[in-house]
From TrEMBL, chains A, B:
It comes from the Bacteria. Its cofactor is FAD. This is Glycolate oxidase. PROSITE patterns: FAD_PCMH (PS51387). The lineage of its organism: Bacteria, Bacillati, Actinomycetota, Actinomycetes, Pseudonocardiales. The keyword Metal-binding does not apply. Gene3D superfamilies: 3.30.465.10, 3.30.70.2740, Vanillyl-alcohol Oxidase, Chain A, domain 4 (1.10.45.10). GO terms for molecular function: FAD binding; oxidoreductase activity. InterPro entries: FAD-bd_oxidored_4_C, FAD-bd_PCMH, FAD-bd_PCMH-like_sf, FAD-bd_PCMH_sub2, FAD-linked_Oxase-like_C, FAD-linked_OxidoTrans_Type4, Oxid_FAD_bind_N, Vanillyl_alc_oxidase_C-sub2. Residues 39-218 form the FAD-binding PCMH-type domain.
Amino acid sequence: MSETPAVIDRLVAALGPAAVLTDPDVTSAYQRDMMPLAPHGSPLAVVLPASVEQVQEVVRACADAGVPIVPRGAGSGLSGAANAIDDCVVLVTTKLNEIVEIDQDNRLAVVQPGVVNLDLRNAVEKNGLFYPPDPASYDWCTIGGNLATNAGGLCCVKYGVTSDSVLGLEVVLADGSLLRTGRRTVKGVAGYDLTKLFVGSEGTLGVITSATLALKPIPQAPGTMVAAFPAASAAGVAVTRVVREGLVPSLMEIMDATSIAVVETYLKTELGAGKGAGALLLCQSDSGGEVARRELAALEQICTDAGADLVHTTFDAAEGGMLLKARRAVLMALEEHGDWMTDDVCVPRTKIVDLIGGCERIAAEVGLTVAVVGHAGDGNMHPTIVYDASSAEQVALAHKAFAAILALGLSLGGTITGEHGVGKIKQEWLARELGEVGMRVHREIKKALDPGNLFNPGSMFSV
Amino acid sequence: MSETPAVIDRLVAALGPAAVLTDPDVTSAYQRDMMPLAPHGSPLAVVLPASVEQVQEVVRACADAGVPIVPRGAGSGLSGAANAIDDCVVLVTTKLNEIVEIDQDNRLAVVQPGVVNLDLRNAVEKNGLFYPPDPASYDWCTIGGNLATNAGGLCCVKYGVTSDSVLGLEVVLADGSLLRTGRRTVKGVAGYDLTKLFVGSEGTLGVITSATLALKPIPQAPGTMVAAFPAASAAGVAVTRVVREGLVPSLMEIMDATSIAVVETYLKTELGAGKGAGALLLCQSDSGGEVARRELAALEQICTDAGADLVHTTFDAAEGGMLLKARRAVLMALEEHGDWMTDDVCVPRTKIVDLIGGCERIAAEVGLTVAVVGHAGDGNMHPTIVYDASSAEQVALAHKAFAAILALGLSLGGTITGEHGVGKIKQEWLARELGEVGMRVHREIKKALDPGNLFNPGSMFSV
């Protein structure tokens, strides 16, 4: 602790006083992300470097002083990975927000980590290009955070996750040196795939200061199909048939009965699901024209065969947008019923029904509402627990439900996190999923790249 | 060396005498892969384990005795990565050749590493599924080798490389323990992406004993378009336009003037390119029906606008197959002109023309034939040098041309290997591409996972 003032002095000397925040009233805004129940501490300082060199300076200063660094972007995360620990330096990347290059002919962009996802989407769209990853927070989350957590979104069923769009990175390592991974070419196998090692490493191995991203052609305006089922099991049958028949919609979302009910109340509208609908499937095709029509007709047929009470397809952008809005409104709708905490498990797509059924049982058992929404096309479900954060008893029950959902996901052959990450809330679950050898390899890699345990110590796993 | 007999005894005890080959006349067949100029040594023994437990036994025995292990599959590699070094044990995975599971509903397969790529393709096709990676040697290369080199092929422009199809692995580590990476779900971010760290690691980090592979729906029967250009530059303009316009053919191959000429002679047929054609583009669409027609028409238009002398589209499977056969026949055709050595660089797609032009200059400079064929859709080019392996002078010139092509690829913003790997022929080039920090990180990871330098020492890089 005696070195504390020295490190602050050094940070101020390197970054200027305006970029080094130490007032607790100010730094508290950078203490945590959007996962309410993850622990967080009080940072020594929050720094906002504005260049790669400044990031290197921060890393060297902290390494020399033995002060841990927690890197973060906008703080939209849902695992506490960006949460401060006591006496750390929070390294915020939001000032590194330049779109350095958009290369239309090679379909790539080079960006700094603080660029907001939506800003990148808009910028490349002007060049006739498309950046697929679309986490729910896409209008305020940063690319750096997306990279650190390997963020997903609604696009994944057709376009994959963030790591599928990354060609190369620049990363400041624990000794302050700058590592360049990957390349600007579409293919390349020169050496280990370090790019994908850093993507999803949740700020535990280095600070990403630049990314070269692969872009896609802009897809066609989507057509949208909605299907309402009497029970989740019927919707599950439809999802399995869609996968089996080789259909690849550009979006396939599921809402359970609880989600439908709260959204209908919240939006003061009917989703056309009828009273007491058991589940809703929302699908899009962005293939355009005749192909989209054929894909959506095939999806309609599958849903009807699986027992849907209602199927409806629209190519009207406003109507399609409304339906998507309903899906995106679930969390806000749940807010009217209490505090919420969203879980994130991914199961084999044939097991979605079992997951929804299991969540119903867990909800009944703990006596809390659990609404299930999720990306049915890839089995990534977000059971969301509604509770009263001011009640210690309800908080304990919420934790119990959260854990029961993870155990259920694992028992169904799934993973404890499809896209939100491990962070500071699922460390023990990571060990349970990976096993002893897997954890040992994680520790060996962490120790090899960050021997002083400088970056985000205790997050994801302890060394 | 004194421990040699002991390790052989132990291997024989574990695997049985038939699975431990020591006769030099027999082991010589396992000394090298298909890259003629990569160095190779004489193995102490060649072992063919038939179970994961036997692989673990081999690893433990060799680790205890300090005998290095070179893992290999069928030996179709083109970088010498599977080449034996003196007094090593070559661990052949071809007896681990079971397709353990095909899960149609979750679109995945679990396979052992010795399964031949084509056997997997055929097996999943019977279940209505498609395994995209299609290296040129797909009818005899193994999945294990594909994983170790992160193999590509003609499919990559639309379907990506091997790592894009891998969900999880089982790997025997240097201490004989069994690591499970990844998962059976489509998405998952629990921990570091160890799966992709091992894919493409060329047998330097462990022995892959099982892989869970993501499958795709079977695409439609392809339509094929061929375009002949007066000069490579015009074909390059067409490739850039295709990328810029957002077209994604399922195949887009380029052949330069030399490749066209040797193939026409070899197949005793005309490719319709006319006398002295400068380049040929071969494209396919597997989107089916009206969409394929539209895609191929758009490709035709782009080629015509770029100055093609001839464009021709066919939906006749036999005719399309003939055209593809011509592309695949280039190496065999070159064999009639001498020995060949194929290089493997990947450049930004806008730089293909510069690469072909540069290869012409290099060919003239060294006085050898260099034929350029490649995957134009992703910039992955295979300039192939024809020389006389019995002439020391020509061998030296071939080496010179090989190196000049790599330097050219790097100078164009490309990589020294798009899909063949580094192996035992491009180690110094890897260091040149990755730089000091990149190499240090490689060594740190290697040391963390294989502290005794047991696996494929000296291949890819030296510790």
